[in-house]
Amino acid sequence: MRILVINPGSTSTKLAIFENETIVETKTIRHSTEELSKFENLYSQKDFRKELILSFLSESGYSLDSFDAIVGRGGLLRPLKGGTYFVNDRMIDDLKAAKYGEHASNLGAILAKELTTNASKEIPAFIADPVVVDEMKEVAKFSGHPDFQRKSIFHALNQKAVARSVAQKYGRRYEEMNFVVVHMGGGISIGAHEKGRVVDVNNALNGDGPYTPERSGTLPLTQLIKLCFSKKYAKNEIKKLIKGKGGLVAYTGTNDCTKIQQRLRNGETGELELFYRGMAYQITKWIGKMAAALKGEVDAIILTGGLAHDTKYLVPWISEKVSFIAPVEVVPGGNEELALALAACRVLKGEEKAKTY
Ligand SMILES: Nc1ncnc2c1ncn2[C@@H]1O[C@H](COP(=O)(O)OP(=O)(O)OP(=O)(O)O)[C@@H](O)[C@H]1O
Ligand SMILES: CCCC(=O)O
């Protein structure tokens, strides 16, 4: 079985080709803030990212018809149970209209479906464990006012995949362990995994959580209200301050932490180090919150996502503050592409039934 995996992120497009469970080709294309800011909205990036996929296929010598399935990372849909879903017209309509909001992963289903229709044979298109997987406990949903509800929007696919792999390393089942999983990418989500269920997590997309390479995270509320009524910014500009131009972009001018690390290695200190340390500090506080949600019964804290590659600065800064809670496991990057391929394989082999949206 040959599977094409499409994983559009906020700062990258990750592509992979699998023969059954084995990866045979992979490519990560990075997108700068400037490159993506010329598109009016997310959907208008579709053709740009599609061309990148087609070039990847021709560079690696695969035709569309040679695939048995195309699987994309799932985006902002209505709250769903975890699992694998067929991409159907209802899903595409919701994603095109951004009915539940805009996120790079919305393009996963759209691109997967469009490429399957460009093939000259019938190929299924899937998504798996989209960012809207909702397993939150009722008590965790209260925000502090009945007009507002906390929502479960996070890196469900990678968080669950790495938690399963760490459980396997411990010789136990995911469903019998407790973890705090910290996905650190363009966005950052920190989830409390209680026996296979993500019972609490920050809403990584919508101003909840630590600041990230390009998001503000939780901001002081009354200052935000003042800014909204100041007429200094339009609504869209304020949204950009929170997502896209917040966090390290606002403090340092870049969302690329490899550049920040390079400058630190070159001996730069002062404000730059403080901004980067500030992000680590906020992450540690959220780990503490999620440990409390698990009553301190934490088998491991798992650091994952692109930023977990930074074992010189970020990983030690976080680990030294939270290792009193539980051992820290580092799973850099992510298993998202593998997790998507495995999901498609399970359906093609008849081990799992794909759900209908
Ligand atoms: N090898 C590396 N060493 C250090 N930092 C890295 C490395 N690779 C990526 N990063 C940093 O990680 C961040 C991006 O992480 P990642 O690739 O997980 O994000 P994404 O997929 O675009 O977004 P998200 O994970 O939120 O969906 C960037 O700031 C990037 O500079
Ligand atoms: C919400 C999960 C994905 C992201 O933060 O980009």
UniProtKB/TrEMBL annotation:
- What is this enzyme's class at the first EC digit? transferase
Q: Which PANTHER family match?
A: ACETATE KINASE (PTHR21060), BUTYRATE KINASE 2-RELATED (PTHR21060:SF3)
Give the protein's recorded name. Answer: Probable butyrate kinase
Question: What keywords are annotated for this sequence in UniProt?
Answer: ATP-binding, Cytoplasm, Kinase, Nucleotide-binding, Transferase
Q: Which CDD domains does UniProt cross-reference here?
A: ASKHA_NBD_BK (cd24011)
Record's subcellular location:
Cytoplasm
What organism is this sequence from? Kosmotoga pacifica
GO MF annotation, one: butyrate kinase activity
Query: What NCBIfam families does the entry give?
Result: butyr_kinase (TIGR02707), PRK03011.1-5 (NF002834)
Entries under SUPFAM superfamilies matching the protein: Actin-like ATPase domain
Name the source's superkingdom: Bacteria
EC annotation from Swiss-Prot or TrEMBL: 2.7.2.7
Pfam families, alphabetized: Acetate_kinase (PF00871)
